[in-house]
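Query structure, 318 tokens:
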């Protein structure tokens, strides 16, 4: 997999193609020889000059003989990807290229039909849109990237670097990927997935039928609340409550309650020095053991690791 072509849609931000260029477009024969033959391909090659060497700039025809094709994020997911780009990416895959998307580049792969019947990911903010627009795609918003053989997809932004390092690891081995990660001052492999970055949503409308109840629950998360407790507070039956929750939140009362407990635990881990035992008690999860199990299953990393990653301002205040 020595040749890598970066297919740049119109309007792609610099950040989106910086990671692939830094990994594959810089001469790193000191790490592995040969390294990669890197090219940048777009519908308007002239617009790419000044950012890349002239001999690395091609039109979309440059995808035709590349071993690996990378599609970074699109400018706007509401805009249909251009037919030329979609056709070029599909043709490259049909010819045998490994096709990779970063962030919302997954929408291009989906438009080309390359994700039909496959697990794929994208930025968690856009995962629902991808799933609705392309129902044959098995969208997983919880992971940083998915390697499905000849098709690889990553989550948003920095997850593109995770996937690029994974490609190097696949092509050249863990030792080379680890050395490159040290040069780039990034982790060779990040634990967990996107779940640790996703916040638990609250209904946007404040006038819905559950508005008072949800506020009441959020103020009592430390209590051992049950569905019956919530139904009693709302003065409805448990069955009616379940229907109302499905309509307003899209989930069940217990799942919503669990998500709010996890969200409160995340906030306390980020902003306080409270022990895991105390946070477990204050979020209604009982013991530290129970909290660790539920937190890891939901967020993808243990509470202590989450705190080290997202801790805010405590050192400065000390």
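Result returned for the query:
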């Amino acid at each position: 997999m020595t040749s890598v072509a970066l297919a740049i849609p119109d309007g792609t931000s610099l950040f989106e193609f910086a990671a692939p260029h830094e990994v594959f477009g810089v001469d790193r024969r000191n790490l592995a020889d040969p390294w990669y033959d890197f090219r940048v391909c777009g519908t308007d090659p002239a617009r790419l000059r000044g950012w890349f060497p002239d001999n690395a700039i091609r039109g979309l025809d440059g995808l035709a003989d590349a071993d690996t094709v990378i599609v970074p994020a699109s400018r706007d997911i509401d805009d249909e990807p251009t037919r030329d780009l979609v056709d070029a990416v599909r043709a490259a895959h049909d010819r045998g290229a490994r096709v990779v998307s970063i962030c919302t580049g997954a929408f291009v792969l989906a438009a080309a039909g390359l994700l039909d019947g496959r697990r794929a990911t994208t930025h968690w903010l856009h995962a629902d849109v991808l799933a609705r627009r392309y129902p044959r795609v098995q969208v997983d918003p919880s992971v940083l990237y998915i390697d499905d053989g000849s098709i690889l997809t990553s989550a948003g932004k920095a997850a593109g670097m995770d996937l690029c390092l994974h490609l190097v690891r696949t092509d050249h081995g863990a030792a080379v990927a680890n050395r490159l990660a040290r040069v780039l001052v990034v982790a060779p492999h990040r634990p967990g997935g996107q779940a640790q970055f996703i916040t638990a949503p609250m209904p946007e409308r404040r006038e819905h039928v559950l508005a008072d109840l949800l506020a009441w629950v959020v103020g009592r998360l430390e209590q051992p609340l049950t569905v019956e407790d919530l139904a009693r507070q709302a003065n409805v039956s448990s069955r009616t409550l379940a229907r109302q929750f499905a309509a307003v939140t899209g989930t069940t009362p217990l799942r919503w309650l669990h998500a709010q407990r996890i969200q409160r635990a995340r906030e306390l881990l980020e902003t306080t020095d409270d022990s895991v035992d105390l946070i477990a008690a204050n979020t209604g999860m009982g013991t530290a053991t129970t909290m660790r199990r539920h937190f890891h299953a939901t967020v993808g990393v243990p509470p202590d690791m989450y705190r080290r990653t997202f801790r805010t301002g405590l050192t400065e205040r000390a």
